[in-house]
């Protein structure tokens, strides 16, 4: 348990952390991977190259130090991280390794400031956070393993269908190799997959949003082909090499971004492949045959990159409460909305005071959409969002 003095010591190091910035986490990862190279089979090494992982870890460490005396403020972060860790099959032993290298990094980068009392305070603080996360992750593992169709760790699935949804996106239907049932999930959650591409140096684990409603028999993920070399190791492998009949390892579904209500007016706002969790939400809402009003708002480059368009039109024909608008960044003749998504164009029809708004897509797009919603007096607590890769707030 942290003492009041140790809490103050940790909080006093915030300026030091902020002045060092991501140099701390860059040093940490180099140190850890040199001593424990096996962890390269867990961490997304593409995010190491582009700096996203370093920034995400630095933000989390700094936020924890700032709120060390008010851990309730970190509840959302803990839930988000726990779900992501569960999809990587993180175990308590991994926390010991990370803690060792984190404290070692702080000692090496700031030897004068990071005295023994400071090191002890940070060790206690880290152990407390680790205990919280480990506890939550063990609950997630237990819940998934005990649920109908559930399991723990990796389970082999066969690709039973592969469908091109657009120029860049393909869907993969995954059916368990053992023929058993699969655990249900909340619409909006993701699936962790584990593969070893032929040209990759390490085992790769990625999370992809589930893009259909739960059915108890199989899962569907929809994957965008990302550009190489700094990203797209797994997405290109799935597109180019994985075919129907091939098998991959799959972790149970998880994630803290999901549909909160089946009865409130719902606005689904996406860009690019960000529509994958929105499709799971839309299919789930549509299957309930309720009178809940739904708005499906999507932005993409052009019609060739517009995934699921035909399916959305089918749903619209059968559900009078579904409203659909699409913005194409590359202007299209006779198309009502071109360029960036301007929600003011349809503000009169949106449930600004009574609806729940869900955002998914590139971070810049979501900030753009969120700022518009706030300017239209949508309550912040009614706006929910999902970020691909290491999480960041905006």
TrEMBL record:
Domain of life: Bacteria
Binding site for NADP(+): 272-277
Family: In the C-terminal section; belongs to the flavoprotein pyridine nucleotide cytochrome reductase family. Belongs to the globin family. Two-domain flavohemoproteins subfamily.
CDD domains the record matches: FHb-globin, flavohem_like_fad_nad_binding
Residues reported to bind heme b: 85
PROSITE patterns in UniProt: FAD_FR, GLOBIN
Reductase: region residues: 149-394
Organism, as annotated: Cellvibrio zantedeschiae
Cofactor(s) the protein needs: FAD; heme b
Entry note about domains: Consists of two distinct domains; an N-terminal heme-containing oxygen-binding domain and a C-terminal reductase domain with binding sites for FAD and NAD(P)H.
Pfam families: FAD_binding_6, Globin, NAD_binding_1
Every Globin domain range: 1-138
Site (Involved in heme-bound ligand stabilization and O-O bond activation): 29
Catalysed reactions listed for this entry: 2 nitric oxide + NADPH + 2 O2 = 2 nitrate + NADP(+) + H(+); 2 nitric oxide + NADH + 2 O2 = 2 nitrate + NAD(+) + H(+)
Leading EC class: oxidoreductase
Name the record gives this protein: Flavohemoprotein
Residues at the active site: 95, 137
Domain FAD-binding FR-type, residue spans: 152-260
Binding site for FAD: 190, 206-209, 387-390
Chain's role: Is involved in NO detoxification in an aerobic process, termed nitric oxide dioxygenase (NOD) reaction that utilizes O(2) and NAD(P)H to convert NO to nitrate, which protects the bacterium from various noxious nitrogen compounds. Therefore, plays a central role in the inducible response to nitrosative stress.
Site positions per UniProt: Influences the redox potential of the prosthetic heme and FAD groups: 84, 386
């Amino acid at each position: 348990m942290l003492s009041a003095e140790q809490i103050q010591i940790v909080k006093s190091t915030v300026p030091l952390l902020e002045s060092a910035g991501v140099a701390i986490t860059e040093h940490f990862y180099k140190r850890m991977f040199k001593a424990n190279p096996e962890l390269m089979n867990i961490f997304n090494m593409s995010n190491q190259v582009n700096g996203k992982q370093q920034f995400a870890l630095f933000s989390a460490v700094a936020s924890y130090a700032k709120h060390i005396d008010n851990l309730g403020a970190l509840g959302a972060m803990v839930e988000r991280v726990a779900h992501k860790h569960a999809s990587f099959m993180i175990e308590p032993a991994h926390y010991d390794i990370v803690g060792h290298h984190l404290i070692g990094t702080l000692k090496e980068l700031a030897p004068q400031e990071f005295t023994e009392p400071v090191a002890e305070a940070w060790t206690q603080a880290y152990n407390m956070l680790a205990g919280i996360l480990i506890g939550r992750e063990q609950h997630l593992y237990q819940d998934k393993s005990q649920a109908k169709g559930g399991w723990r760790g990796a389970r082999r699935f066969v690709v039973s269908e592969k469908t091109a949804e657009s120029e860049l996106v393909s869907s993969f239907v995954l059916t368990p190799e053992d023929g058993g049932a699969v655990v249900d999930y909340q619409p909006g959650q993701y699936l962790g997959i584990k593969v070893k591409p032929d040209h990759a140096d390490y085992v790769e684990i990625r999370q992809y949003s589930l893009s259909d409603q739960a059915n108890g028999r199989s899962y569907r993920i929809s994957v965008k082909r990302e550009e190489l070399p700094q990203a797209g190791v797994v997405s290109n492998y799935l597109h180019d090499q994985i075919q129907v009949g091939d098998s991959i390892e799959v972790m149970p579904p998880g994630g803290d971004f999901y549909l909160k209500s089946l009865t409130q007016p719902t606005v689904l706002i996406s860009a690019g492949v960000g529509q994958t969790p929105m499709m799971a939400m839309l299919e789930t809402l549509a299957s309930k045959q309720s009178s809940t009003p739904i708005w499906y708002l999507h932005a993409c480059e052009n019609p060739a990159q517009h995934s699921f368009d035909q399916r959305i039109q089918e749903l619209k024909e059968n559900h009078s409460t579904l409203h659909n608008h699409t913005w194409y960044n590359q202007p299209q003749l006779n198309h009502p909305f071109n360029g960036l998504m301007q929600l003011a164009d349809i503000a009169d029809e949106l449930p600004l005071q009574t609806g729940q708004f869900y955002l998914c897509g590139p971070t810049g797009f979501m900030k753009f959409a969120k700022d518009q919603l706030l300017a239209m007096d949508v309550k912040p607590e009614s706006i929910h969002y999902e970020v691909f890769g290491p999480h960041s707030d905006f």
